[in-house]
């Protein structure tokens, strides 16, 4: 991809997702993710309805009128975006590839965090850590994250969510807001998720395509595993084959739900042809 085309794509995503974060998500994000505590701001004259316990008795004594202390929320937080860029994310039959929807969701969340002056970091992973960008503030930083999401080419194609969570535990020492975005076609990540969720506010965002949910009957066709590159001929006319395919999808769905619930972590599931805006907004409001 040449520079001109890349910049055009970045700008297109910025316009769409920044509008969403400005007009829809910024208030919900602020309400949902609380700051680290309250810090002193100023003193002002007492007004009807103020808490008696907030009266500053020293200032009150000097002015012979009641004054109260004003506290504001200490807002600065850190958001970490953990993005699965394994081979299975380059799949899509409607509305583009899963990777494209993931990029839009990540950009929307990043701009929402920027609206609140929070730091944003990025981890791109397969079965290894492909790229780590430490948390930082600002629009230019978010645009860099979007550029990497669009053009970064991973070395590997397989998935290891447990390894990515282990890496996160090592690089983030303070509590952070974490969004783990993947199709969750991975095994054995519960132990690491449990460790991370004790320290961080983590939400799993599962993206999937309609053809992963239900196999169409199109006869005998060659299928390639996007992560292993293995090709197999599959008889989609067979009801047994289609049922087994759908059973595997249901099992992965249930595993995702059960693991995140058990670990006390948040969860969102959205199909590529559904409105991720509605799903994110519903999630923020429900919490």
Structure summarized in a few sentences:
The chain has 287 residues and is of the alpha/beta class. Helices cover 45% and strands 24% of the residues. The strands form three sheets. A six-stranded mixed beta sheet has the order 5-4-3-6-7-10, sandwiched between helices.
Q: What descriptive keywords fit this protein?
A:
alpha/beta; two-stranded antiparallel sheet
Textual characterization of the structure:
The strands form three sheets. The protein has a six-stranded mixed β-sheet with strand order 5-4-3-6-7-10, with helices on both faces. The chain has a two-stranded antiparallel ribbon with strand order 1-2. The longest helix is centred in the first third of the chain and has 30 residues, at 3-32. Strand 6 (177-182), helix 6 (190-199) and strand 7 (201-208) form a beta-alpha-beta unit. It has nine helices and ten strands. The chain has 287 residues and is an alpha/beta fold. The radius of gyration is 23 Å and the shape is elongated.
| Share of residues in strands | 15-25%
Q: What radius of gyration results from the CA coordinates?
A: 23 Å
Category from helices, strands and their pairing? alpha/beta
What strand order characterises the main sheet?
Answer: 5-4-3-6-7-10
Main sheet makeup: 6 strands, mixed
The general outline is elongated
- How far is it from the N-terminal to the C-terminal residue, by CA? 40 Å
| DSSP summary: helix tally | 9
């Amino acid at each position: 991809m040449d520079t001109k085309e890349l910049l055009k794509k970045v700008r297109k995503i910025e316009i769409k997702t920044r509008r969403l974060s400005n007009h829809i998500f910024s208030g919900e994000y602020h309400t949902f993710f609380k700051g680290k505590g309250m810090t002193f701001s100023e003193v002002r004259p007492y007004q009807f309805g103020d808490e008696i316990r907030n009266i500053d008795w020293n200032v009150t004594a000097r002015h012979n009128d009641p004054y109260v202390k004003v506290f504001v929320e200490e807002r600065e937080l850190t958001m970490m975006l953990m993005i699965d860029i394994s081979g299975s994310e380059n799949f899509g039959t409607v509305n583009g590839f899963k990777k494209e929807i993931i990029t839009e969701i990540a950009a929307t969340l990043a701009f929402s965090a920027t609206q609140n002056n929070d730091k944003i970091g990025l981890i791109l992973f397969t079965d290894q850590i492909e790229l780590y960008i430490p948390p930082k503030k600002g629009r230019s930083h978010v645009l860099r994250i979007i550029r990497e999401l669009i053009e970064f080419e991973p070395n590997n194609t397989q998935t290891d969510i447990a390894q990515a969570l282990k890496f996160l535990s090592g690089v983030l020492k303070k509590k952070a807001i974490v969004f783990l975005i993947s199709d969750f076609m991975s095994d054995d990540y519960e132990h690491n998720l449990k460790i991370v969720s004790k320290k961080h506010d983590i939400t799993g965002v599962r993206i999937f395509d309609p053809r992963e949910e239900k196999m169409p009957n199109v006869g005998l066709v060659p299928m390639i595993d996007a992560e292993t590159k293995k090709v197999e001929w599959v008889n989609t006319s067979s009801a047994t084959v289609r049922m087994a395919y759908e059973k595997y999808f249901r099992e992965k769905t249930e595993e995702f739900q059960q693991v995140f619930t058990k670990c006390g972590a948040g969860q969102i599931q959205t199909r590529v042809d559904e409105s991720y805006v509605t799903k994110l907004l519903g999630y923020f409001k429900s919490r």
